[in-house]
């Protein structure tokens, strides 16, 4: 569903001013949004998942390990598809606390696409270079939104998500490097116009939640603190928006309508989107492309 149509529906959670801010900036921060009982369940689920990672020696489709990971001292970049591995995660992602919020920016009918839990274990966990999300999973329109829930909050030294406000209205940049690898990184030359004062790096307490439009340029710095920075990142779209490439992070729940009704007609935004590699043959994560990554 395109923004003009979304705005015809009343808000559930956000104020009208917050929603307009989302469409103006391409992101919105709702401080301390997720209530403590949910945060407790998410923390417990995270502990279970981290516990399971003790048996893992090499990164696999679920656990992306950080350097120094061991059974004694687990260090994770990410848990892919946490909703497929822990019922509490899926219960949260389809709960109105999430779906009513998402409906405010995609319209009343909400569809799940994929999710990840970025753990960023701390003491130097790497950051993310500037990128846009949608070229990894193009859809028929640009309604997809990533919701970022800081389970324990995020301080400036923990590598908060950083945004270029308004960049969702600009071009989509290439996510390929000169060798043709899909590196999920915008070339420096493409962002030569960016100055420090343009960058937003919002932080907040436990449950602080970020809504991120799929075209917005964003990244993050390393987590130099001793504490993990738990960021749960489910991705949704309006129900009438359809992916036209394979999902890089497949889920048994992909395509589940988690609020409202399934669509009878697809929504189209004809602005072109660069295509990713064919993910049916596997997804090479950003970490596998990093030789000496920026920000480490
Ligand atoms: O976890 C982070 O700091 C950044 C995550 C991100 O940008 C992504 O997964 O697309």
CATH superfamily: q2cbj1_9rhob like domain
Number of domains: 1
Poorly predicted residue ranges: 292-296
Helix content: 10-25%
CATH fold-level label: Jelly Rolls
CATH class categorisation? Mainly Beta
Helix segment tally: 6
The SSE order reads HHEHEEHHEEEEEEEEH
Beta-strand content:
15-25%
Principal-axes shape call: globular
SS-derived structural category: alpha+beta
Q: Look at the structure and give the mean pLDDT.
A: 95
Bound molecules: 2-oxoglutaric acid
Known CATH architecture? Sandwich
Please give the structural blueprint:
Layout: H1 3-6, H2 16-25, E1 27-30, H3 36-53, E2 63-65, E3 76-80, H4 87-93, H5 96-106, E4 110-118, E5 128-131, E6 145-150, E7 161-163, E8 209-213, E9 218-220, E10 231-238, E11 257-259, H6 286-289
Antiparallel strand pairs: 1-8, 2-3, 3-4, 4-10, 4-11, 5-9, 6-8, 6-10, 7-9
Helix pairs in contact: 3-4
This protein binds 2-oxoglutaric acid.
Q: What does the model show?
A:
The protein is α+β, with helices and mostly antiparallel strands and 296 residues long. The protein has helices at 3-6, 16-25, 36-53, 87-93, 96-106, 286-289; strands at residues 27-30, 63-65, 76-80, 110-118, 128-131, 145-150, 161-163, 209-213, 218-220, 231-238, 257-259. It has one domain: q2cbj1_9rhob like domain (Jelly Rolls, Sandwich), CATH 2.60.120. The protein contains 6 helices and 11 strands. The strands form 2 sheets. Strands 1, 2, 3, 4, 6, 8, 10 and 11 form an 8-stranded antiparallel β-sheet that branches. The protein is globular, with a radius of gyration of 18 Å. 2-oxoglutaric acid binds next to strand 9 and strand 10. 2-oxoglutaric acid binds at residues 118, 128, 133, 159, 161, 218, 220, 231, 233.
């Amino acid at each position: 569903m395109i923004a003009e149509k979304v705005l015809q529906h009343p808000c559930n959670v956000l104020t009208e001013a917050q929603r307009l801010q989302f469409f103006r900036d391409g992101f919105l921060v709702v401080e301390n949004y997720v209530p403590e009982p949910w945060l407790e369940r998410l923390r417990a689920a995270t502990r279970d998942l981290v516990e399971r990672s003790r048996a893992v020696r090499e990164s696999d489709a679920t656990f992306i390990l950080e350097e120094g990971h061991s059974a004694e001292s687990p260090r994770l970049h990410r848990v892919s598809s946490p909703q497929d591995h822990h019922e509490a995660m899926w219960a949260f992602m389809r709960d109105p606390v999430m779906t009513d919020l998402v409906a405010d920016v995609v319209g009343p009918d909400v569809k799940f696409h994929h999710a990840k839990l970025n753990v960023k274990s701390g003491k130097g966990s790497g950051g993310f270079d500037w990128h846009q999300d949608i070229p990894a999973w193009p859809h028929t329109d640009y309604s997809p939104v990533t919701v970022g829930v800081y389970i324990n909050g995020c301080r400036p030294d923990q590598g908060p998500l950083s945004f270029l406000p308004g960049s969702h209205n600009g071009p989509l940049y290439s996510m390929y490097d000169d060798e043709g690898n899909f590196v999920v990184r915008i070339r420096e030359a493409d962002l030569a116009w960016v100055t420090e004062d343009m960058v937003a790096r919002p932080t907040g307490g436990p449950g602080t939640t970020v809504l991120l439009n799929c075209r917005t340029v964003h990244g993050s710095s390393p987590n130099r603190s001793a504490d993990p920075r738990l960021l749960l990142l489910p991705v949704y779209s309006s129900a009438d928006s359809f992916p036209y490439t394979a999902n890089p992070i497949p889920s048994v729940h992909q395509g589940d309508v988690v609020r409202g009704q399934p669509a009878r007609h697809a929504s189209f935004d004809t602005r072109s989107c660069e295509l990713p590699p064919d993910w049916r043959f596997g997804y090479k994560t950003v970490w596998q492309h990093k030789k000496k990554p920026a920000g480490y």
